[in-house]
Structure prediction request, 1110 residues.
Amino acid sequence: MLAQKPTRSTLVAAVLMASVAMPALADKASETLNVAFTKELENVDSYFNSSREGVVLQRAIWDGLIYRNPETNEYVGNLATSWEWVDDTTLEFKLREGVTFHNGEAFNADDVVFTVNFVANEENGVKTQRNVNWMKSAEKIDDYTVRIHLKEKFPAAIEFLSGPVSMYPNEYYAEAGPSGMGLKPVGTGPYKVTEVVPGQHFVLEANGAYHDSPKGQPEIAKIDIRTIPDVNTQMAELFSGSLDLIWQVPADQANKLAQMGQFTVANESTMRVGYLQMDAAGRSGEDNPFTNKLVRQAVNHAINRQELVDALLQGSSKVVYTPCFPSQFGCVQDVTEYDYDPEKAKALLAEAGYPDGFSIDFYAYRDRQYAEAITSYLNAVGITTNFNMLQYSALREKNMNGEVALSFQTWGSYSINDASAMVSQFFKHGALDSTRDDEVLEWLNVADSSTAPDTRVEYYTKALQKITGEAFWAPMFTYNTNYVFKDEVAYTPTSDEVLRFVDMSWN
Amino acid sequence: MTDVTDPLAAEIHGPSPRQLLKARALSHKGLIFGMMVVLLLVLVAILAPVLAPHDPYAQSLMNRMVPPVFMGGTWEHPLGTDHLGRDYLSRLIYGARVSLMIGAIAALISGVIGTAMGVAAGYFGGKVDAVVTFLINVRLAMPVVLVALAVVAILGGSLTVVICVLGLLLWDRFAVVMRASTLQISRRDYVAAAQVIGASTPRILLTEIMPNVFNNLIVIVTLEMAHAILLEAALSFLGLGVQPPTPSWGLMVSEGKNMMLFEPWLVLIPGAVLFVLVLAINLMGDGLRDVTAPEGRS
Amino acid sequence: MLTFILKRLGLALLVALTVSFISFSLLFLSGDPAAALAGETASGEDVEALRRLYGFDRPMLVQYAEWLFSALRGDFGESYYFKLPVASLIAERLQVTMTLGLCGILFALVTAVPLGVIAAIRPNSIIDRVALFLSVAGQAMPSFWFGLILIVVFAIQLGWLPPSGAATWRHFIMPTIVLGYYAMPAIMRLTRAGMLDVLNSDFIRTARAKGAGETRVLFKHALRNAIIPVVSLAAVQMGFMLGGSIVVESVFALHGAGYLAWESIARNDLPTVQALILVFSMFYIVFTFLADVLNAWLDPRMRSA
Prediction:
C-alpha cells in the first residue's frame, strides 16, 4: 500500500529504537502507567460529558448496578446482586451490601434513588439525555432494595444500566453537584481519583478496598493520564519513554509502530460508525440542496467507501450502509446500498437541477484526514465544500441549532449493542435530527418500546429501509481502534472502544 | 514593533544620483538574492498550471505518502505524495500562489489603511495625529494571532476571510513609519512653499508628500508581505487559516506533522520552501531600505 | 516626571478600555450566545428564558458595561465548555505562559545583546555576519516548523529533551528557544545599531581621548547608553511574545494560556476567548507602560515626548 522501501523503514526504526532505549521517566518500576487522552474533558462527571474519554474514566471510577462482560456479553450483577422485572415498566434490584464509596460513604438504596432521580430529571441537564430519559424515577423499598420506574416499556434498560448509568454517592453529590463531582470525583469503582487538573491531567490510584466486582481487581497501582491532542506528540512521548500506552492511533502510524517491534499494537473494531449527515429537513434553509432526494443519492454514490476503508481506516473497519452498527440488535443489513459511481452522482445532480454542482459549508470534528478525503470525493462530482473543522462541542451546538447542512459525523453508540442507541438517537425528531421524518419516528417508537424481539426487528427494518432508500444519511464505514503500548504492559483490548484500566497489568 | 535603524545604511553618506542608486542595488548581495528568489517564485506561481506535473487536488488514496525521488521514490512524483496521495510538488507549486496572493493582497489592504492613517497623522498633526496614535496603540495591544484565530473561527476559514483579517490587522507598521516620514517631509521648505502658493491639500499630499515617502512605503510593503505570509502559515498550521483542499504551505506542514516521525520530508519540504520565500522577501526589503533610504534613518 | 507618568497612565487606560470593548464585541459577531448556551433539549422558550436570564436581550452597551465591571472585579463569567469560572481557568494556566515568556525574553536578551555588541565593535567581521545571518533567518523562520524540527532532532533522534509538556525545567528548553528566537532579531539589531551610534558619538571619542581603557569605554559608557532602548524594546517584545506563545504552546503541548485560547476558539467557548484577548492585551499595555516610564526615568529627554 505504501510505496516504501524496507531499507528506509528499518533505518528509521533503528534510529527510533535507539531513542526508546533511553531511561524512561515513569514505568513499571515506578508502578505508574502513563496514558494519553486526545481530548480535554469538559467535566469528569460522566453524566456531563459526551466523549469517549469520559466513558473510559466512568468505567474506572464508578460502577453500575449491572455489568456486561465485554467478551461474552453476559449481564451480571455489580452494585446489584440480582434484579427482576416487576412489570413492563418496573425493575427491582437487590443491592450489594458492604460497598463503600471512595470517600467512605456507604453504598445503599438512598444512593441509587438519589442518582436516578437526579439524572432522570431533564432540568438537571444530563448531557446525553437518551442515556437516562427512559427512567422516570427510583423508589426505595428498604436499605438494599430499590425499584426503578420506567416512563414506558424500554427493553434496552438492562443494557443502559450496565453502560452509561452509574451510581453516585447521594450525600456528596447533593452537596458538590456536577461541577464539584468533576473536580473531585467520588465513586465506588476500581480506581479512585487523586488529582484532577481540568483539561490537563488526571491521576488515578487503585482502590484497595474495591468490592468483589465482576470487573476484577485493579492491578496497576497508579495511572497518570495526560491530555495530548496531537498523535504525533503522543508518539514522541511514547518513544521518549514518558508514555506507556496510547490509543485511537491512526492506521498509518500504528503500522509503522508495529514494524518497530518495540510495542504491542492491538487493533480492535469498535461500534463507531462514520457517516455524512445531510439536512434533509431543510433546517439550515428551506432551499438547501439536501432537501432533494436526488442530491442525497448523488452524495451516496460519490463516496468510494471501499477505498476509504482500504487505504485510510484499514484494520478491522468495514463498509456500512446502515445508520447503525451491524452487530447491534435490530440493525438489519437488508437495505439500499449505494455503489461508488461518480458519473451517476453527476447525472443525479444534473437531474436535481445542479448540472454544475453547488457550493456548501462542510463541517467535521475529528479525523481531519478522513474528512479531507471525503470532501475530495464530493469535489470530484461538483460539490464544492467550504471546509470547517470544529471541536465536537461546537459542532454539536451548531447542529442543534440547525445551522449545519452537511457534516461528517461519527457515533459510537456508547458501546450499547442495540440499534436504538444510534438510529433512535438521531431519527426521533430530537435536536440532532436532520431528517424529521414522521413515518420513521412512528416506526422507531414501536421498535424501541416493544418487548417482542420480532416486532422490534420488523419495525427497525422498516425504519432503516426508508432511511437508506431516501438516502437521508450517507453512512460510510465502521471505525477500528489501534491500541499501542509498551511490551511491559499486558492488556487485551475489547471491541467496545473502552479502555479498561482494571484489566491491565505489568508483564 | 520598533523600527530598527539599519547601520549599514548609515555607512553611506549623502544623497545620490540614480546611477549611484543602481550601482548600490547591483552590489547589494542580499537584495539581488532576495529579488531573484522572489521573482522565481512569482513566476512559478503564475505558471503553476504549466509547471505542475499533476492536478494538485487529484486524490489517489492508493498512492499515499510515496517518498520523494531522492528518498527512493520515482520521477512520477518528484517530491512524493501527501497523506491523500496528491502530488506534493504540484501542491507546493500551487501553494506558492496562495502564499504570494495572501501576502500581496494583505499587504496592499493594510498598506492602504496604514498609509492613509500615517500620512494624515503626519501631515495634519494635532487631533488627527492624536487619534491615529491612539488607534495604533490599540492595535498594537491586540494579540494578533489570537484575534485573527478568533475572527477566522467565527467567520469560517477561507482565503478571502484570511486575507481580509490579515489586511485589517497588519497596518500598524505602515501607520507608524508613514507618520514619521510624513512628519519629517511636511516640515521641509517645498511643502511650506506649496502651501503658500495655495495648492490644495490633496494636491500637496499627492505631489509633494507621497513621492517622498514612497521609498519607505515600498520597504514596509515587502516586510509586511513577509509578515502576512508567515502569519497565514501559522493560522493554517493551527487549523484556522486557509482550509483544505486549498494547498497552503502552513497547512501542508500541519498535515504532514502526523507522520513526521516516520516521513520527516512531509514537514521539511513545505517548511523549507516557506522559510526561503519569507527569507527572500525580507532580504529584498532590507536591501531596498539600504539602497533607497540611506539618509535619515539613523 | 509625575505628569508624564499620569499622562501615559491615562493613555494606557483608554487603550485598555477600547481593547476590552473590541474583545467584548466578538461575542456579538458570533451569533446568538443564548442558543449556544441552551443545549440539546432546549426549546425555543428555553432559549428565550436563557436570553433573559443572562441578559442577552438588553442593549449591547449595557451588557458591555456589566461585563466590564465584573471583569474589573476579576469575574470573567463562566466557561461555556468547562462550566467553571473563566478567571480560575486562566489563572491556572497563566503560570506556564508567564514562565515561558520570561524564559523566552531572557534567552533572547542573553543571546542578542552580546552578539549585537560584538557585531558593533567589529563590523563586517565573521561574528557580525553570523549575527546578521541569525537575525535574518530568525525573522523568516516559521516558529511552528522550527519547533517541530527541534522535537525531531533533540527529543527523538538524540533523546536529550522531553518532547512535550511542562513538568520540569527541561520541558521548557525547546519552547524557550523557539519563542526567544522570535524576539531575538529585533533586539540584536537594535543593540548593534545603538552601539554603533554611541561608539561614533562625541562623548565616546572624548572618553577615548581622555585615555579611558577600551573595556571601560565599552561597558561603562557605550553599552550603558545603548542598552536603554533595548530594555524598552524587550518589554514590548515580552508583551508580543505572550500573545505569540499560542503557536509554541500548541507545538509543545504546553497547557498554558495560549493553548487554552486556541482550544477555546475551536470549542466556541467565547467567554474564555474574550477574557484571554483582554488578559494578553493587558500584559502588553502594562509592559509598554513600564517601558515608557523606565525610558523616561533613564533618559530625561524622553519625558517631554
Q: What stands out?
A: Chain B has 13 helices and no strands. The interface with chain A takes residues 57, 59, 61-67, 71-73, 83-85, 156-158, 239, 243-245, 255, 257-262 of chain B (CB under 8 Å). Residues 1-5, 7-12 of chain B have pLDDT under 50 and may be disordered. The radius of gyration of chain B is 22 Å.
